[in-house]
Amino acid sequence: MSSIGRASVLIGAGTIVSRVSGLLRIVVLVAIVGSVGSAAGDAFGLANQLPNNIYTVISTGVLTAVIVPQIVKAAAHADGGRAFVSKLFTLGTVILLAATAIAMVAAPFIVTVYIDPSKVEPDQIALATAFAYWCLPQIFFYGLYALLGEILNARKVFGPYTWAPIVNNLVSIAGFGLFLLLFGGPSPDVVQWTPTMIGLLGGVATGGIVLQTVVLLVFWRRAGLQLRPDFHWRGVGLRHIGRLAGWTFLMVIVGQLAGIVQTRVLSGASGTGPAILASQNAWLVFMLPYSIIVLSIGTPYFTQLSEHAAAGRDGDVKTDIVRSIRVLGLFIVVATAALAVASVPATRIFTNSSAEALAAAPVLLCFLVCLLPLAVLFVVQRTFYAYNDTRTPFFFTLVQGGLVALSALAAGGAVSAGLVPLSQLAATVALGQALSSLVQVVIATIILHRRLGGIRIGEWMPPLLRFIGAAIPAAGAGWGVLLLCGGPTGWVSDSIYTGALGAALVGSVVLAVYIGILAIFRTPELAPALALGRRFLPKR
């Protein structure tokens, strides 16, 4: 357990620095392209998201689900898995090069898949395509980074994968800052953009990803592996990996198709209100606690859970499930409460005015509905992966993806019918996604419960309900502090800096009251959670 705690702290600390520097990166980017109602911002947001979507297919669809358990098994080979890793790395590099080349050729088509040409101006599509040519090479480096990172994670070297993105953020901040010095900002109008401006912004975005991957290579020897090209792929288990990856690949494709529907619907609000970039920024804020809490704590658990599953120790797997959900739940519930109360000041960090923050905050609030369910899903879904079952997650993800697409189309239809104002289109789409994820986690939990003959739901569901009960008065206290500060439209939303300060103030009050309530009722999960938290504090 202590090794998991140390790994969680290492990942968590790196994730905090990475996410904070990532927030600063977005702040500078918003100063360049704008946020709410920015056609140029939506064009860049779309283009820069394309390689991320491919990265999601590669990382979540293949590597995380399939490769980690396979590397854990290969470690038992006489060579410690070195030959397997070399073959895997060579194969992955070839596939990534091919995927990047195809994407570059198909860039204009890909852009029009994500944007509804009937809802946006041709100039905006042209700008998004120009940005895409600069951003799509990220596919190769994102994929290489994910492949290297998952191999390191499987070898229990967790730090580099978490800390490497900081380099990307620092490069982007410096590059975006240079753009502001040369060209000023914000430039939300698509006709303002010259080839030089497009090349600088897109080149900086891709250059950061390149350096992020190079940094990860430096730490390769710490895993005790010698990387060498190996094109002899016989014996690597491609047929077995292919069967497993096939389902996860299809699963992520379902998510991407649903995302395409969402983006096409959101493009109808581009240039007038919260749309593509505003939704992306709200999702980044939403993912901040998820990344810091769920990934930092859950990733070491997944490696341990995979080991227990490979050894056939089902009882230990169930213990891992209970322990991880209870620990994740304690942190995630208070994070949800704090972000909900501080949604306007938190959103102000990624907008250029108080009015834009008020317009974009509902998008964040709607996403928050599924923060706790996604934390539970992280554990449940990866338990299926640990047992080499990627087929079942495909089907419950298929349900979720279908609901996401249908809810997005329904939101667009509601706007067209005048039932929902255009300014709330992005929030309505986000709510549909959140509710779809809630349905997904319920289905996944029921299936896993039956598959393992029980996953001790009675041991982790009541604690989650207790955490929610403690978070309600804590949120009330935070809201009171926000009102004392003048409310959502008070000084907390005057600027980016006051937004960050206000969000931190409200969040601190919510956290303090939450911990106090749990301490009064002697919640058993509090002591280990505080012990984990103290690991982040500097020692004397």
Explain this structure to me?
- The chain has 540 residues and is mostly helical.
- It has two domains: 236 residues, no CATH class; 264 residues, no CATH class.
- 78% of the residues lie in helices and 0% in strands.
- The chain has 20 helices and no strands.
- Helix 2 packs parallel to helix 5, helix 2 runs parallel beside helix 6 and helix 2 packs antiparallel against helix 10.
- The longest helix is centred in the first third of the chain and has 36 residues.
- The radius of gyration is 23 Å and the shape is globular.
- The two termini are 24 Å apart.
| Beta-strand content | under 5%
The topology string of helices and strands comes to HHHHHHHHHHHHHHHHHHHH
Helix content: over 70%
Record field, number of beta strands: 0
Low confidence ranges? none
Average pLDDT across residues?
A: 86
Work out the radius of gyration.
23 Å
**Total of domains:** 2
Largest sheet: none
Q: DSSP helix count? A: 20
Which class best fits the helix and strand makeup? mainly alpha
Outline type: globular
* Straight-line N-to-C gap: 24 Å
InterPro entries: Lipid_II_flippase_MurJ/MviN, MurJ
Protein name: Murein biosynthesis integral membrane protein MurJ
Membrane topology: Multi-pass membrane protein
Keywords: Cell membrane, Cell shape, Membrane, Peptidoglycan synthesis, Transmembrane, Transmembrane helix
